[in-house]
Amino acid sequence: MASVLSAFMAGTVSGRAEDQKEPKATGKSFVETFDKLDKKRWYVSDGWSNGDHQNCTWSAKQVNVSDGTLKLGFQAEPSKGRSNVCGEVQTNKRFGYGTFEVRMKAAAGSGLNTGFFSFIGPVHKQPHDEIDFEVLGKDPSKVQVNQYVNGKSVGSAKLVDVPGGADKEFHDYAFVWQQDRIAWYVDGKLVEEATDPAKLPSHPSKIYLSLWGSDTLKSWMGAFASPKGRSPRRWTAFPTQPPATPASFRNRSFAS
C-alpha cells in the first residue's frame, strides 16, 4: 500500500508563482474545504524542480482533490532528467502576519520530505524568508520546525515529537507569525518559539504544501528509498516501478 500524506487546513494566513511584482500581502483570511481545487486560490507546481538536491519533478498529475482531501503524490516516473515525480501546491496570493494551520497526515520513507511552510524568495524578486514544518520521512515520529531570514537558516531546526506518529494519523500543525514572535504548535501544544528580531521573517509570503524527495541530502533526510507498493493512479506505463506515496490535505482554513 502507498503511504498517505493528508492534511486538513485551518487558521490565519497571509501568497502564485507568477506574481513577481506583488511585494505586499494581498491574501485574505480563508477556510479551505477542498471540495475542489480552487485555481483562483491555489497554483499547482508543474514541470520543474527546486534544484539539484531534489530527485523529483513537480507534476500536476501528482495533485488530486477528492472527498474533501488534497492528495500529493510521489511516484517513480522519469521526468525532465529526474527519476521521480512529486506534488506541490502554493497559494496565488501572499500573506503577512497571522496564524496558519493545517491538519496533515505525512508520508513515511527515508529521503522524503512532507512540508507545510511559508516562503518567498529570489524567484519572486524578494529576499528568501521562510517558516517551516517539515516531516522527514526517515523518522515520521517527529516534525522539524525552523525559519529562514534572507536565505539563511536562523532557527533552532528543532525536532518535535508527534504523538502517535505524523504518518499514522492526522495531526494539527500551526504557526503564529507576529512582528515580534513566531510560535509553533503541534496538536494545540506550544513546541517552539522565536523572539530574536534578527531571526524573524518580515516579508509577505506564499503558503506551500509539498511532498518531495532527495538523493543527496542524506545527512538531513536520510538515504533515499523508493516508496513500496503499487499506485492505483499510475496505470501501466511503468508497471515495475515503485508507486506513489500520496499526500493529502483535508479541509480547513488559512486566515490573516
Please outline what is shown here.
The protein is mostly beta strands. It has one helix and 20 strands.
Features:
mainly beta; 20 strands; single chain; globular; 1 helix; 256 residues; 2% helix; 8-stranded antiparallel beta sheet; disordered N terminus; 10-stranded mixed beta sheet
Overall description:
With 256 residues, this protein is an all-beta fold. It is 2% helix and 44% strand. The strands form three sheets. Strands 3, 4, 7, 8, 10, 11, 12, 13, 14 and 18 form a ten-stranded mixed beta sheet that branches. Strands 1, 5, 6, 9, 15, 16, 17 and 19 form an eight-stranded antiparallel beta sheet that branches. The protein is globular. Residues 1-20 and 229-249 have low confidence and may be disordered.
Count the DSSP helices: 1
Query: Mean of the pLDDT scores?
Result: 82
Helicity range of the residues?
under 10%
Number of beta strands? 20
| Main sheet specs | 10 strands, mixed
Question: How is this fold's topology laid out?
Answer:
Blueprint: E1 6-11, E2 30-32, E3 42-44, E4 56-58, E5 63-66, E6 69-72, E7 74-79, E8 82-91, E9 98-105, E10 112-120, E11 129-136, E12 142-149, E13 152-153, E14 158-161, E15 171-178, E16 181-186, E17 189-194, E18 206-213, H1 218-221, E19 247-250, E20 252-254
Parallel strand pairs: 4-8
Antiparallel strand pairs: 1-9, 2-20, 3-8, 5-6, 6-19, 7-8, 8-18, 9-15, 9-19, 10-11, 10-18, 11-12, 12-13, 12-14, 15-16, 16-17
